[in-house]
Structure formats: C-alpha cells, structure tokens
Amino acid sequence: QGESIVATYSEDAIYLFANVDNPVPGKYLQKYEGHLNEMTVKGVNFFGPKSEFVVSGSDCGNLFFWDKDTGEVVQMLHGDRDVVNCLEPHPHLPILATSGIDSDVKVWTPTRAQPESEE
C-alpha cells in the first residue's frame, strides 16, 4: 500500500498511477472501464487484504470491482436505485460502506466463505 494512486475523472475511466518511481510522469499503469461517470463525482478506492481490487460506484446504480493488475471487471453489484457516489472500505476487514442518491447507507460484508454449488 502507498505504492500507487487510483483516480477518476468526470466522464472518463479510472486510472492507476505509480506513487513513486514512475519512469514517465503522468503515465498510468492501468485503466479501469465499464462504469458510468457522467452525472456526479464517484468515489474510487482500493479494496481487499492486499489492495488487489479497485472499487467504484457508477451512474447506473451499480458497484464495480476490478482486478487491480489486469483491469478486468470481477464483480458488479446493484448498490443504489440511481447512482452510487460514495464508498469507503474498512481498513482491515472485508467491509465496504456505500451511498448514493437513495437516503440510506449500505454496508457490504461477505455472507459465506464459498458460493453454494448449484444443484
């Protein structure tokens, strides 16, 4: 942690930058796409015990999780009726708080170690 910075721009993707020792200043290391970021500013953050994911809200009401290294979307969850703007991960536990235009805050936690097998 502390080795990289993740940032988003209005009407654009999310970018990962090296915090130190970037051989080309301003050049990004990874780009994360798939969410909508046009109506309001979206929070973006690292998530996971080793910060192996990037997480952000979207104008479509979904919460997106990307693999930090590959940039691939690994999970998308319905987070709000309209827009997910704010998100804040717990610093040590797999807990994430999100909010949007709805008048509530949602707290996300894992519910089981592994998915049930489909029978």
In whole angstroms, the N-to-C terminal distance is 41 Å
Integer average pLDDT? 85
Number of helices: 0
Trace the largest sheet across and list its strands.
4-5-6-7
Global Rg: 15 Å
What composes the largest sheet? 4 strands, antiparallel
- Tell me the helix content: under 10%
Note the run of SSEs as H and E: EEEEEEEEEE
Structural class by SSE content: mainly beta
> Could you say which overall geometry the principal axes of the C-alpha atoms support?
globular
Low-confidence stretches: none
Per DSSP, what share of the residues sits in E-state strands of 2 or more residues?
35-45%
**Number of DSSP strands?**
10
Please give a quick description of this structure.
By secondary structure, the protein is mostly beta strands.
Model description:
The protein is mostly beta strands. Helices cover 0% and strands 40% of the residues. It has strands spanning 4-8, 14-18, 30-32, 44-47, 53-56, 62-67, 73-78, 84-89, 96-100, 105-108. The chain starts with a strand and ends in an 11-residue tail after the last strand.
Secondary structure: elements and pairs:
Layout: E1 4-8, E2 14-18, E3 30-32, E4 44-47, E5 53-56, E6 62-67, E7 73-78, E8 84-89, E9 96-100, E10 105-108
Antiparallel strand pairs: 1-2, 2-3, 4-5, 5-6, 6-7, 8-9, 9-10
Keywords:
119 residues, mainly beta, four-stranded antiparallel sheet, three-stranded antiparallel sheet, 10 strands, 0% helix, globular
